[in-house]
Design goal:
The protein is α/β, with parallel strands linked by helices. It has one domain: Zn-dependent exopeptidases (Aminopeptidase, 3-Layer(aba) Sandwich), CATH 3.40.630.40. The chain is about 35% helix and about 25% strand. The strands form 3 sheets. The protein has an 8-stranded mixed β-sheet with strand order 1-2-4-3-5-12-8-11, with helices on both faces. The longest helix has 20 residues, at about 75-95.
Length: about 260
């Protein structure tokens, strides 16, 4: 018998206790372009029975709950409770099932507001770069310490074997952090395919590879061990559509 979903009000926001071995994390308070990310996570988890910790009360300017160093330095009880609830939730699932998923969710604007280098090199060997005003060419970027290879960037990506799709992001940009790969390549490929089938153009390590040691993706992966941890950077206008909820529900139902 499937146990009922529990939704609890916490000092930091909302905790959802589900039954599916997937944890969604919304670490940033609903501000600016991330105003509706918490709503997306709550709707998906309520529909699918996933676990979640959702920050709705702690501003990023006060403490960035996606940064383990800032969490450690904070003496705010609500920050400590967020951290404790997250680790407890993931530990319990890892004890009950093999390789549960942990998905950190963020929104980012469609258009670049400053010059950005990508985890991609042009055919001349230089890092690919985007300028302010240009549109991001993806709907979701998966961060897990990996980046897609040239075989994918300069082709449709079809017919490229899973083991040839990705490379350690550190090999492309060595100055972006010393983190490790936080999810098995085959699982990453499976997630990417499901998101793509849901109508969302999905990249891996296109712009955010979650390589910084202080990134909570890295922290949870190192702290717990046998878990698949990724960051989903969703374009704001995509994440705010009703279709995004429907697509992510389908992804979750086929992920495990």
């Amino acid at each position: 018998m499937v146990k009922p979903l529990e939704r609890l009000s916490m000092a930091y926001g909302v905790k959802i206790i589900g039954f599916r071995p997937i944890v969604f994390v919304a670490p940033h308070c609903p501000e600016d372009h991330e105003q509706f990310v918490n709503e997306l996570v709550a709707k998906v988890c309520t529909a699918t029975g996933c676990f979640a910790v959702i920050n709705t009360k702690i501003p990023r300017q006060l403490v960035d709950l996606n940064n383990s160093e800032e969490i450690e330095k904070s003496d705010d009880p609500a920050v400590k409770r967020f951290y404790g609830d997250l680790l407890e939730m993931v530990r319990e699932l890892s004890d009950q099932t093999e390789w549960p998923w942990v998905l950190f969710v963020h929104f980012t604007p469609r258009f670049y507001t400053k010059r950005r280098f990508l985890y991609e090199r042009e055919q001349n060997g230089r890092l690919a770069v985007r300028s302010p005003g240009q549109s991001r060419d993806f709907d979701i970027d998966i961060g897990c310490g990996l980046a897609e290879t040239l075989a994918v960037h300069f082709s449709s990506g079809e017919g490229v074997a899973d083991e040839d799709r990705y490379v350690s992001a550190k090999k492309i940009r060595r100055n972006r952090g010393h983190g490790t790969v936080t999810c098995n390549q085959n699982r990453v490929a499976h997630l990417q395919r499901l998101l793509t089938l849901g109508g969302m153009r999905t990249k891996v390590g296109r712009e955010w590879a979650a390589l910084a040691e202080s990134n909570m993706v890295q922290h949870v992966a190192q702290k717990i061990g046998s878990v698949s941890v990724v960051q989903l950077e969703i374009i704001q206008d995509v994440g705010e559509r009703r279709e995004a909820v429907e697509a992510l529900i389908q992804v979750v139902e086929n992920l495990i």
